[in-house]
Every structure is written in structure tokens, then in C-alpha cells.
Amino acid sequence: MTVDSYIPPLPADEPNRQKAVDRAIGKASAVRKQLQKLVDEAAKRFHTPMAALSIIDNQRQWFAATHGFDDPETPRAISFCAHAILQPDEVTVVGDATQDRRFATNPVVRFKPNVRFYAGAPVIDADGFALGTLCVIDQEARLPDVDREYLSSLAAEASRLLAE
Description:
The chain has helices at 14-28, 32-46, 80-84, 107-110, 148-163, and strands at residues 50-56, 60-67, 73-75, 92-94, 117-124, 130-138. The protein is α+β, with helices and mostly antiparallel strands. The chain has one domain (14-163): Beta-Lactamase (2-Layer Sandwich), CATH 3.30.450. A 6-stranded antiparallel β-sheet has the order 3-2-1-6-5-4. The radius of gyration is 14 Å and the shape is globular.
């Protein structure tokens, strides 16, 4: 495994997805309070110290709302969410990132914030592009049997808000 094995590939039709992301970033500011409520609800429901609504652009993961951390963005290359958007019809769940070949060498696993558990439901625009995710994060490994349907419903509500 190489040091950069955690870097996700780009989705199909990345140029058009990026145009959809640009539109969503513009809309996110107008609905920030509603997005924050969804993120707080996710953290509460899943009992995680961290949660976020991420939007993945060409170079970064931008956070439209966060719970448990204050970073406004991280590089796309280390983003778990950039992996999750590759499967827009699924909730991505990582029970123990130290045991997952995609993430074991990732700096956010090896160093602060020491991510172990991740669950992310894609936020999809009206044209079907995965913009980012609504995700929950913990520093403790967990069984991967999370309520995927509930997390997906929160992501769907975020999708609706960004489409308004």
C-alpha cells in the first residue's frame, strides 16, 4: 500500500459535476441554518462527536455545516466523502478506518482527528450529481450496522434545501 492509497478517483463526468457543485456552494449560504439543524440531528441520532455536510469541489472538501469541529475545509485528497460520492446510490460506512485499505494510511486516520468510524450519505442534485455527503464521524471504531435509511433521509433533505 502506498502512502497516497487513500486518494479517491474522480467521478465520471467530473466537469459537469463541478458545475453542479458551484451552483450548490452558492445556495448553501442561504440555507446554512437549516443545513446546520440536519447536521446536529445526525450527530445526536448517531451519537457521534462529529458530523458534517460536505461539498466536494475539484480541490477541496468544503463544509456547509459542521458539528464537533470548526475546519471550514480540507483537501479533497484526504476526504472520506470524496470516496462516498463515487457510489451515489449507497451510504458509505467504514466501521474501523485503520482496517480499511482505502483509509488506513490517510492522515486524518493516522493523526488528528483520528477518524475511526465514518458513515456518509450522498447529497444529490436534481440532475443526479453527487455534490458531497451528510456524514457522521467518530474517533472510536463501531459496528457498521447504522440506520442507513435515516442518514439517507437527512441527506435527501439537504439535497432539497440546496435545490431551492
